[in-house]
Structure formats: C-alpha cells, structure tokens
Amino acid sequence: MTSPIVTVDRLSIDTRSAQRDIRLIDGVSFDLYRGEMVGLVGESGSGKSLTGSALAALLPTGVERSGGRVLVNGREVDDSAKTCPDDVAMIFQNPMTSLNPSLRVGDQIAEAIRLRHRGMSRRESRRRAVDVLDRVEMNRPAERARQYPFEFSGGMRQRAMIGIAIAREPQVLVADEPTTALDVTVQKNILDLIDTLRTEMGLAVLLISHDLAVVSERSDRMMVMYAGQLVETGSTEPMLGAPMHPYLEGLLRCVPERAAESGELRPLPGQVLSLADAGPGCRFAARCELCTPECMAAPVPLDTMSGGRQVRCIRPNEPVGAGGPPLVSNSAQPEVGGV
Predict the structure, then answer these.
(1) 175 near 89, Cβ under 8 Å?
(2) Distance CA 166, CA 58 (A)
(3) Cβ count within 10 A of residue 332
(4) Which among 47-56, 208-217, 324-333 has the top mean pLDDT?
(5) pTM
(6) Which pLDDT belongs to residue 277?
(7) Tally: H helices and E strands in the chain
(8) Is 88 strand, coil or helix?
C-alpha cells in the first residue's frame, strides 16, 4: 500500500472553561490516501468539524491541540500558522459567510492562485480564475468572474468555494458539510463535482457530514465519531450493512428509508454528551441499550476487528435490545455547540 498523504496520530484538542480544560477531541487517529474519499459522520457536537479544522490549521480561538500529531506529506501541520498548509484546502458549509461580499468572485479565486504561485501577475491570475470557474462547471465563467457573491445562487456560491479550494492545487480536500443548505438536485451536482475533481486531481477527500445517505453513496471508508472519539471505522459498505457499535446502529435506525423497510422508527434517546460531564467510561453509555456497569468503569479502547474494522465497544455485534434498559439516566444533556 502507498504511504498516506495525511496521518492523524492520537489527536487531542482542548478548550478552557470554568478554569479547567475540557477535552473536545480525544486521541483520534486515522490516515487518508490519495484518490479516496473518507466520510466522517456523527451528530452535531460530536467533533467532526474540529477534526477537519485541525488538518487545515484553522482551529478556532480558544481551542488548541493538546496532544498528538497531524502530518501532511510527512510534514507536521503548524497550528500557529492559522492558514491552510499548501497541500490542504477546505470547503466550508456556508459559502455566503466564507466568501468576501465586497470582492468579485474572480478576484477571490485569483488571490488563491497567487498565494500558490508567488510572483504571478494579476492579469494572469485573473485569466486562470476564469479557467477555474470553467473547471467547476460554472456557466459563462468569464461573466461570473466579474460578479459578486450576492449575485450567485447557493449552488453557484458553493462552486465558487470549490474553485477557491482547487485553485490552491491541493492534495487534500476537507469538505465540511458542503451541501447542507442546498436542495437535493443541487446537492447531487456539487457532490458529483467533488467526486470528479477527486478522480482528476487524485485528491484525498475528507467528507464531513451528518447525512448517512450522502456518505454511503460517496465514501470508500467511513469513520463514526461520538463525543470527540471515533467509535467505529472501516469500509463503508460492510459498516452500513452490519454495524458493530450501538451508536452507528442507532443512527441507521433513524434513516427514514430503513425505518420504512422495518416498519419502525426508533430515534436515539437523549442528546450528545456534554463533554464537561464526561466520565471515565464509554461516552455513549447514557444512551445505550447494551450498557453494563463494566462500560462505565474504565475507558473503552478502539479495538481492531476482522477485516480491519475498528470498534470502541466491549459488546460489539450484539443486537441492540439484548442488554435491557440502560443502567444510567437517559435524561437530555446540553449539546456541545459549534464543534
């Protein structure tokens, strides 16, 4: 197997609250390889966006990496730079707040080109910006380059954001909920575009999403995150066909199409754990029907199973419901926002 483009090794991220540190990301490790798309899924507050931001050295103020390493092409990402490494680009979920409303779209793409090719003239960078808009399948690219973001539809703005990203000629693309605010047809077009660029440019794509349907259709591998920890990883099809962790099984039960087949919609009880209240044991225990006292006594490791699957559970493969009611309260806890 070729060497990974990205290596995340025991990544931990903390923030400070009420005079103490709170661990938002806890010992996350994974690799990304050229030409593959890996989905990172979980509820809001699970830590998906923070993990993606760590790859791009764009952690928000008040949040810092407290442990582990993030390597891109063998070089460690410098958090203090507060700018993406040359080989990494990021697509954000809300292009209207990510694009500069006072600059023409072509000028914003041209700026990204000049950052990659220092010394290039403004005229040449603007010409290349039109080529980039054409590459992301923008109709009338020369005309669109002279327009402002407010003149674009949501789908066009997202294409412009993708254009800025690929103008950097990256090897790694972090797509953070790139289709959240788009209708179904436009969503498919944007995902098709990312897929095409992945193939043409040999990109390693980290697709961050809460939408299991999107991940199931597009990703070669997937990682499931809960309360700052990876709880299951592996190839997409086997994971969706036979989930080993109760959290992934619970997420799949909430998919309307699967509920229609089974005749039952069973939502997950409670909310994502408040990380300020995290105990020593399994972070999913309060919502898990398989919970036992052993689950809450000590940290649960991410074990490697047959076929390379990784699962953080002491009772993998057991059908949910076999363990009776949970032994801890399922009362709703405040969700960690903005993670």
Answers:
(1) no
(2) 18
(3) 11
(4) 47-56
(5) 0.89
(6) 83
(7) 12, 12
(8) strand
